[in-house]
């Protein structure tokens, strides 16, 4: 039975009134402070990228941006906060490419990565370096691989958590080199790097910026880089490709929002971030971190995430047995 005419007219009037209000809210955006959630620990490469871009976006958007770390459960805690937020652009997420690995290891996530988050823009590609303690006596990546082949499962690596970007980099290395390694996950990259420097684990793959202080203090040495070419910051360190391994390389850091964000609002935030990324201050900081720009539309970024979710499920199916995956 059709609703009475008065109800239909009321619904039509309400929808007509709501449209200008929504458009007005978007045109006024932002009219209050923005909260950016980083789902990784402070001091990580992702955290440094987030704070660098947020500083520049404050000038672009003429509004305060508060960066807040919400680590835990592989990054799913912070991601869930944003996934369940209002789609008004006032709570956003900066995360690493590990966001695309969580569905492979946490089938009971409280949100759907593909459908409950809105990809906005990738902020940077963040090449990492393979780091070891000088006390280990390993000077090249091939020496590390050979050690692992001679003692399957005895070589231990640290990471910033199960399915973190640093974990994924090692799993790709493991698959390409056909070796067996033992994974020691930590709460974040700083802890994994510190234990590698102390010799408690054999190696770690992490952003250069995160381990640079240990390298400068001669507590860690870099034996390979995940970048496509040698970095000017560490020109004597070869790339993994130079060691003869054929593997997909590199992690990224991106900006996402909740589901249901209007396309016009997504584009406005995308453009503000893109403008911030072109600022001399951001470029200078990125150069010091060996971070690289990744120009993409929001649609291209979404496709990247969807494709990586699929490939990570295949990669981690072998690395993490079903009975070892967290609930």
Protein traits:
327 residues; alpha/beta; D-Maltodextrin-Binding Protein, domain 2; 2 domains; 5-stranded mixed beta sheet; 11 helices; BUG; signal
Describe, in plain words, how this protein is organized in 3D.
The strands form 2 sheets. Strands 2-1-3-10-4 form a 5-stranded mixed beta sheet, sandwiched between helices. Strands 7-6-8-5-9 form a 5-stranded mixed beta sheet. α2 packs across α9, α2 runs antiparallel to α10 and α6 crosses α11. It is built from 11 helices and 10 strands. It folds into 2 domains: 178 residues, Bordetella uptake gene, domain 1 (D-Maltodextrin-Binding Protein, domain 2), CATH 3.40.190.150; 116 residues, D-Maltodextrin-Binding Protein, domain 2, CATH 3.40.190. Helices cover 43% and strands 17% of the residues. By secondary structure, the protein is an alpha/beta fold.
CATH class of the largest domain reads Alpha Beta
**CATH fold type of the largest domain:** D-Maltodextrin-Binding Protein, domain 2
CATH architecture assignment of the largest domain: 3-Layer(aba) Sandwich
Structural class of the secondary elements?
A: alpha/beta
Largest sheet: 5 strands, mixed
Number of spatially distinct domains: 2
**In the CATH hierarchy, what is the superfamily of the largest domain?**
Bordetella uptake gene, domain 1
Q: Provide mean pLDDT, rounded.
A: 89
Family: Belongs to the UPF0065 (bug) family.
Protein name: ABC transporter substrate-binding protein
Keywords: Signal
In short:
It holds the Pfam family TctC. Helices cover about 45% and strands about 15% of the residues.
């Amino acid at each position: 039975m059709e609703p009475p005419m008065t109800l239909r007219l009321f619904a039509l009037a309400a929808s007509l009134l709501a449209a200008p209000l929504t458009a007005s809210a978007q045109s006024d955006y932002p009219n209050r402070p923005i909260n950016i959630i980083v789902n990784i620990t402070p001091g990580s490469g992702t955290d440094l990228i987030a704070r660098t871009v947020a500083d520049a976006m404050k000038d672009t958007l003429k509004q305060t941006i508060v960066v807040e770390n919400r680590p835990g459960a592989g990054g799913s805690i912070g991601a869930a906060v944003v996934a369940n937020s209002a789609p008004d652009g006032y709570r956003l997420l900066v995360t690493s490419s590990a966001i695309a690995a969580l569905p492979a290891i946490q089938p009971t996530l409280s949100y759907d990565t593909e459908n409950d988050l809105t990809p906005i823009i990738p902020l940077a590609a963040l090449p990492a370096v393979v780091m070891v303690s000088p006390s280990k006596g390993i000077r090249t990546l091939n020496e590390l691989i050979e050690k692992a082949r001679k003692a399957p499962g005895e070589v231990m690596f640290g990471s910033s958590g199960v399915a973190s970007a640093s974990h994924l980099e090692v799993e790709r290395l493991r698959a390409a080199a056909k070796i067996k390694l033992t994974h020691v996950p930590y709460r974040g990259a700083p802890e994994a790097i510190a234990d590698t420097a102390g010799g408690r684990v054999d190696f770690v793959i992490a952003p250069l910026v995160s381990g640079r202080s240990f390298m400068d203090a001669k507590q860690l040495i870099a034996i390979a880089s995940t970048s496509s070419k040698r970095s000017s910051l560490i020109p004597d360190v070869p790339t993994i490709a130079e060691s003869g391994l054929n593997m997909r390389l590199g992690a990224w850091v991106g900006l996402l929002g909740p589901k249901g964000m209007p396309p016009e609002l997504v584009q406005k935030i995308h453009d503000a971030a893109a403008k911030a990324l072109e600022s001399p201050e951001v470029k200078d900081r990125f150069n010091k971190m060996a971070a690289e720009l990744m120009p993409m539309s929001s649609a291209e970024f979404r496709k990247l995430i969807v494709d990586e979710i699929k490939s990570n499920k295949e990669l981690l199916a072998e690395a993490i047995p079903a009975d070892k995956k967290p609930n």
